[in-house]
Amino acid sequence: MVDFVALLSTFLPEVVIAAAALLVFLLDVLGVRRTEVTAGVSAAASLLALLFVVADLGIAPFSAVATLPSGLLDSSPASASTSLYAFTSLGLVFQMIFLSATFLVSLASASRPSAEPGAPTFFGLLLLASVGMLFVAVAADLIFLLLAIEITSVSTYLLVAYRRRDRRTIEAAMKFYIIGALSTVLSFFGASLLFGAFGTTNLYAIALAPATPSAALVLVGYAFLLAGLAFKVTVVPFHAWAVDVYDGAPDDVSAFLAGGTKKIGLFAFFLVFLGPVLLARWATSFSPFGLGPFNAHPVFQLVLGALAVLTMTFGNLLALWQKEIKRMLAYSSISQAGYMLIGIAIGTSPAIAGATLQIFAHVLMKTGAFLVVGAVAALGIGPLVDDWRGLGQERPYLGVAFALMLLGLAGIPLTVGFVSKFVLFSAAIQAEGYFVWLAVAGVLNSAASVFYYARVLKAMFFERSDRPAAPSNAGRLGANGLGYGRAAAIAIIAVVVVLLGIYPGPLLSVMQSAAQHFVLLGP
Amino acid sequence: MGIPILSITLASLAVGAAASFVAGSRARWVALATALVFVAETAAMFLGAWGPALAPGQVPVGDAETYRWISLPWLQVNYALGVDGISLVLILLTAFLGLATIVYSWNESHRPGPWFGLILLTLLGSVGVFSALDVLLFFLFWEAVLVPMFFIIGYWGGPRRRYAALKFFIYTHVASVVMLVGLLVLVFYSGSTSLDYSALVARAPALPIVTQSVVFLALLFGFGVKFPVVPFHTWLPDAHVEAPTGGSVLLAGLLLKLGGYGLIRWGILLVPGGFLHLDPIVYVLAFLSIAWGSVVALAQRDMKRLVAYSSINHMGIVLLAIAVHSSLGLLAAVLLMFAHGVVSGLLFMVSGSVHHTFGTRDLASLGGITPGTPFLATMIMIGSLASLGLPALVSFPAEFGALLATYVAVSYWVLIPLLILVVTAAFYLWMMQRLLFGPPRGLPAEGAHDLPFFERAGMAVLVVPIVLFGILPGLLVTVIANSPIRGYP
Amino acid sequence: MSGLTIPEFLALASALLALSIFGVLTRRNFILLLIAIEIGMNAAILNFIYFAAFPLCAGHSALSGQAIAVVTIGFAATEVAVGLAIVLALNRLKGTTNVAESTELKL
Amino acid sequence: MVPLAPALAFVSISFVGRRWPKGEWGGWIAVVAAGFSMVVSVLIALGEMGAPGTYTDVSYTWFNLPGSPGAFPNGFRLVIGTLVDPISALMLLVVTVVGFLVMLYSIGYMHHDRGLPRYYAELSLFLTAMIGLVLSDNLLEFFLFWELVGVCSYFLIGFYYEKPSAASAAKEAFIVTRVGDVLFLAGIFVYFATYATSGPAGGWAANGFLFAYGNAPFLAGVLGGNSFLLTVAGLFIVAGAAGKSAQFPLHVWLPDAMEGPTTVSALIHAATMVAAGVYLLAVTSLFLGFTSLDLLVIVAIGGFTTFFAATMAVVNPDIKRVIAYSTISQLGYMVLAIGVGGAMLGLFHLFTHAFFKALLFLAAGSVIHAIGTQDLFKMGGLRKTMRLTSAAFLVGGLALAGIPPFGGFWSKDDILSAAVQAAEAHAAYWPFVVLAFAAVYLTAYYIFRVWFLTFSGDAVRDPSLPAAHEGGWVMQVPLIALSVFAVVAGLFVFVPSFQTLLQPFGVAVAGIPPTYTSTDLALSAISVVLAGAGIATAYALWGGGRVYELAPRSAARPIRQLLLERYYFKAAYDAIGRRGIYTLARVADFVDRYVIDGTVHGLERAMGAVSDRLRRAQTGVVSDYAAYVVAGLLFVFVVLLLVGPYVVNAWGGG
User: Fold this and answer.
1) Nearest-angstrom CA–CA distance, D346 and D333
2) Are D422 and D510 in contact, with CB atoms under 8 Å apart?
3) Which of B321, B169, B313 is nearest to B235 (CA)?
4) Cβ-count burial B392-427 (b if 16+ within 10 Å, e if not)
5) How far apart are CA B400 and CA B322, in angstroms?
6) Torsion, Cα of D345, D350, D355, D360 (10° steps)
7) Which of A27, A106, D249, D508 could serve as A43's disulfide partner, Cβ 3.0–4.6 Å?
8) Which residues of D touch C (CB under 8 A)?
9) Contact B486/D178, CB-based, under 8 Å?
């Protein structure tokens, strides 16, 4: 008999967020529509949940309020292999990452006008999506994982479309929905094949399973699963939707999509490839379809590595001459996903730690970048790179903040973006062998990506604007037209980006030990 | 060694830079004070305990404390600084150039705060590069030089500055990351988990020759672009032509030296096997750079472009001196880097002054400037003569050592750089003939005024080392010899 | 039970999936796309049910195949509901349910 | 101490000279400094004469790299020092005496010019460097000052910088000598490297870099007496000397260098700097040694240049240029002397030549100063208005032509007799010795052609020229002093204590001592007769103010044209330099901009094109996106099931 209260306390962060979502909808029904209130609820809830997660991770000053029953964190794989969920340090780290995204987007959206239709819906859906994301991070069962992803997906379909009168957002939602649904089909089909092959959908059980009767089912199943999940991660060529959706969606939603929900796909990758890659299992010979025996583990690495290189290269190439800032950021987001895939392809704990930091860095920088885009759009400045000319001189703080985000994305030192890439590529080199070439590909790509980031910097700082001086709605919002919430969110991100760029040690240690626990889950 | 003078130096530069950014029009005083403090600190380094205390063949020593910065089971990054003779001489160069640039651009009125701040940041990065003893720290400073220079070129530069800034940034950044990958491969393939220089220098030379060679290629490319080595040099002329004068001075005087320093400290000392294995390639690149830089310079009409190509030529000689892998060669390479630093600094200053004074740098449309601007003419003369290797000026002992070492290593191949010296003389003489001699041409109608005081003072700061160390190179040689090159075969 | 062997059954599911994918690729009407996607979901659900009944190996799952099927059907329904909402909005704003005519966002 | 005085003069004049109200102040400082140097030099020379067989060497470390294993086992040390020995004392005498007199002369000659502080500063710097060169105790230091005198020469040739011809002559001089210089440097490398790698332990420190007596046997021992390396090193040195001393084929710059003030021509381009090449050859032959092939080359260059330059002097209409060709020709004699083993003979000729050639230049300078032209065909009849100058020029001419007892006779005749002796041993020398004899005739002819054209006749041919007059005492005193030297310098050879200066300490090998013993009266007679014939020819053609015109269709016209065009050497060098190298440079520049940088841009453009092509795949139609997803699925299948296993197996299981 399950102790219900104990269960609730185990899932305290999820419960807090879900309760906040209900509260937001309730307030809407009650007619409390002030954005500050709903945004406050949303931000406070995510901050509270974040506190619990950090506490559960055992980080020093917060560990006093830890709610996770002892023994549940990083428990034995045997116990995880019979459960729907399992608490891993890495999962908690990811929860931390997700909640940061939710918090930042909530904070920034506080500046949104209360009169705007659907504003409470926005926060409700944001929190609902966050609940799904949190569940992804504790999933132990493939079906649990897919359903958690589905919660997020459905919430975000609606989130994109919440501004119901906007043609562009509806088109974005339509594309997002169709490709998302197709991917769901592929994932579930893959899951069903794996279920057939192993008789279970528990990922730990699959990872620990002895030889399977049907290698063919396993490989085909994983192929479908990979294709289905690649949608979320925006792996090339499963990426095409992302650009249109990030472009068409409201700016804050884009921030949340690129900075937040995309990352659940990556954690899903970690879980799904726990067996084939991370545990270096299945070094035994596979011979499906009479192909002759081969070692499945390196083949999986090869697939992931190839997709990683493809993704980062195509993402960068496509971004090169992009004229619209949002689409440029979208392509950049795709290429960044390529770097993160490297971590999974390698599968060592350093690589996972590096990828995790890269994911966190990307959450910060990409969220920040889209928030700045939103702020600039709110100032009445157009979406093209050319429209941004001279912005850095007119609004130095906004300019410097955006420059920091871009330099971080480009991997220039003293930003967290550099540290994460440094650790990730170091891990690739540390793994030796042909992973060094993954590092080389990544490094060259990140160096080439400087081109399009620097192009924006050039426009912002070295060129003069030719637009009329006064922004239309300056003064309507606080913080010099940005709104206090948005300004605060951008400032927080900028500070953290630099702070972690200078002193990443403690955070990296947490991620490293989490990654170590994660890959040591196997026997 | 009780006083962490290196950290103090870096900190003072950082504080100065930060203060400059917010100081607005008073930034120049902040910058001057910072530069003077920096000079004093450099002097302290020379006078301090550790100049002579170095043992030959040792890892550079410096601030006693090292701080653990990133500590993972598989990756340790330290904050560790140290200097030896090579670093000291190049830090001295940084001090001279920094002071000269700040004085020269005293009247910069276009956003002086960021201007002086970025210059101080460049100095900070350079000192960091010359003293970092950890791969990551080295790379951080390396890039920390790049970003300010990007803004200096892009914001204060000439008409095509945006293009030049972008090209500079991307070109050198690509090279930097390739270099970083090479160093990381070295760390991890040598079974080390620490990025510390001492760990690296102890283990890396024992790696298999194939690994060393591959890494050396990466490093050669990484550092070679900074040099710049032909054919990876085309960013340089554009960057120089478009950069503001102060930017050009630092670019040629300092940034190119980072490549040379890197190749010595982080290249051939770490992978001697790979270096020797691929030495023919280095020779070819060196000869190519020497010849190409000089011959192309002959065809230039823009004064800055001409000096830029002559830099390629001179840095080619540095590369050659490194390629000969002898103690004399390395000594000469470092000495030549110092020499080229101050000389090209001076030459870019005079190019800048020619531009402000006459409104053009086109050699074909200028002439006979001596009567109107005798000081400028004298400086052009000193710069050109020093650059073409006139004895008693600072380049001569360095070039002499470099070419002598070349002869010892490869005998008559030395004739290639030697004969190119004639071409080098030819283009400098051509430049002097166009500018200084002949009837006045292309001068402003009301007659040009000779240079303002601060431009003169900036140049004077550089003439001091040009003459002093030209007459007494032994002062520098004694310092440089306190370094691993003494133990170099 | 029936005369279907595992390969035959898998062939059936695969055919359904292929049909679904074919539909997604060739149809332009949003409604038809929704139907095609539902067919694909059913292929997966069929698999779960079949493998639950005739396991290849003796794994023990926290969820039985039948349970998975039921839950999945529920979720698929939710998804379709959202999809229909989007169709309505799309039709209202653009006057069409043809997805190929919604190309404001591209390149 | 000797170079210090002019150095101080240089520093003081260059820093504060422009503030002084009158340019002459700087001039007087320079004169005093040069005079001081001269006095000290004379004392030094007297000291050497008084104590034969001593030398003093004081050196300081300039640059020290401690020893290391490998290429430089003994470390690497460069020194700067002074070596005072007989030959440097002799050379010092030449440099300071001529230097002092020319400085003095300049006060009068230059007083009309602007930029006097610059002039005196540069001249003082030159004197400093030249004294430094003479006193150098090693090749590196020698080279250092060698370059410094070169650059002073550059500035002084270009003194009239507004004149484009002066500017380009200066550049030409620098570049042509630079070719020699770099080869010289290569020669230094050979010697240094030999010491560095196989010298005695501590060799750098002890004597490796010195012009130490006894080095020649050491080098011969290490490298093998006639080794290839030693030969090549010697040839490099010869090339360096040929550049500085304007020997064939690097002779082209000296005539053009006459663009500078005449005083500069007298000091630098006649008496001292150009003689540095000869001095270099002399010290090299004494201290380092030449091989027989080197000597043959030296003889060939010297002998040929002697004649070759004299032919060009025959037709030239410019008074200074004629003297310049004469300088080249006389330097050829000195080089020849060294080639035939008489280094000291060469130095002796250098000694006498310095005085009479400076005299000729200063006399010519007087003329130019007086009437403002250098064109011989505009002059004439100046004997009447410029008696002193006319006499001085005559003395110089006689000394140059080699008429006894004037200076040139003793030294030149020694060389010729030594050459004949050497040719008897080496038949290959004969053609060059014959050319040297032929040059004696030409020399006498061309210098008297100049004298007749300038001074004889009744009046100036070009009436538009101003009336001639003698310069002030500052110009006359040097003329008189140099005339005296031109007469007596040759006779010094009979002074026993002076002879000790011509017999360097410890050298037995290279010693044909220049003691004129009249053993070979027949040879002397031949040369005097040849010279007399030359003078006679000159008188026949030009004497008494006549102007000789070639017949319109004379066969000699093309020859004259050839000579006037300097055998087209300058044209050829210009073609190589301007068209050849500059074209190469322009082609390289094109390649640099459009091929190398073009590749960089091409890469950028190609990426842009790919980017554009790829971007078109983003059609906006969601069905296409779905198709990409399916394609991706297929890609995963292919890699996972076909390519992957193949690759992994090929790599041996990853």
Assistant:
1) 7
2) no
3) B169
4) bbbbbbbbbbbbbbbbbbbeeebbbbbbbbbbbbbb
5) 14
6) 110
7) A106
8) 615-616, 618-623, 626-627, 630
9) no
**C105 part of a folded domain:** no
What residues in D contact A294, CB-CB < 8 Å?
Answer: 644-645, 648-649
What are the angstrom distances between the C-alpha of B441 and each of B304, B362, B371? Answer: 19, 11, 12
What count of other Cβ atoms lies within 10 Å of the Cβ of residue B56?
A: 16
D 615-654 residues inside an 8 A Cβ radius of A: 615, 617-618, 620, 622, 624-626, 628-629, 631-633, 635-637, 639-645, 647-649, 651, 653-654
Give Cα separations from B266 to B130, B191, B215, B223, D355 (angstroms): 11, 18, 11, 9, 60
Residue D428: what pLDDT?
A: 85
Residues D154-195: tens digit of each pLDDT: 888 888 888 888 888 888 888 888 888 999 988 888 887 777
pLDDT surpasses 70 at B386: yes
Q: Does A509 touch chain B (CB under 8 A)?
A: yes
Neighbouring chains to B with at least 3 Cβ pairs closer than 8 Å? A, D
Q: Is residue C106 part of a domain?
A: no
Contact B28, B110 (CB under 8 A): no
DSSP-derived letter for residue D492 is: G
DSSP string over A443-504: HHHHHHHHHHHHHHHIIIIIS---S-SS-TTTTTSHHHHT-HHHHHHHHHHHHHHHHHHH--
CATH of the domain at C63: 1.10.287.3510
- The beta strands (E) that lie in B64-215 are given as 67-72, 75-79
D604: tokens are 């950028």
Tokens at A317, concatenated: 């190439």
Please give the Cα distance from D209 to D203 (Å, whole number). Answer: 8
Do B192 and B199 touch, CB atoms closer than 8 A? yes
Contact assessment for residue A252 and residue A260, using Cβ atoms and an 8 Å cutoff: no
Alpha-carbon gap, residue D437 to D417, rounded angstroms: 10
Q: How far apart are CA D438 and CA D417, in angstroms?
A: 14
User: Is residue A48 a part of any domain in this protein?
Assistant: yes
Q: Who has greater pLDDT, D358 or B449?
A: D358
Express each pLDDT in B408-429 by its tens digit.
Answer: 888 888 888 988 888 888 888 8
ipTM of the complex: 0.88
CA distances from B15 to B18, B98, B117 (A): 5, 15, 10
Residue A41's SS3 state is helix
Contacts of D228 (CB under 8 A, 6+ apart): none
Is there a domain that residue C101 lies in?
no
* B204 touches A: beta carbon within 8 Å: no
- The residue whose two tokens read 């001089």 is D173
D412-433 tens-digit pLDDT:
888 888 888 888 888 888 888 8
Has residue C58 been placed in a domain?
yes
- Report cis status (omega within 30 of 0) of the bond before D405: yes
CB atoms within 10 A of CB D606: 10
Categorize the per-residue pLDDT at D653 as very low, low, confident or very high, splitting at 50, 70 and 90: very low
Contact indicator for B232, B169 with CB cutoff of 8 Å: no
Q: Is residue A2 part of a domain?
A: no
Domain containing residue C16: 6-94
* Domain count for chain A: 1
First to last CA, chain A: 30
Q: Residue A345: inside a domain, yes or no?
A: yes
Measured distance CA(D543)–CA(B9) in Å, rounded: 82
- What is the domain count for chain C? 1
DSSP assignment of D518-581 equals -TTHHHHHHHHHHHHHHHHHHHHHHGGG------TT-THHHHHHHHHTGGGHHHHHHIIIIIII
> Cα-Cα-Cα-Cα dihedral of B363, B367, B373, B378, to 10°?
70
* Residues of the domain holding A309: 8-521
D65's enclosing H/E stretch is: strand D56-65
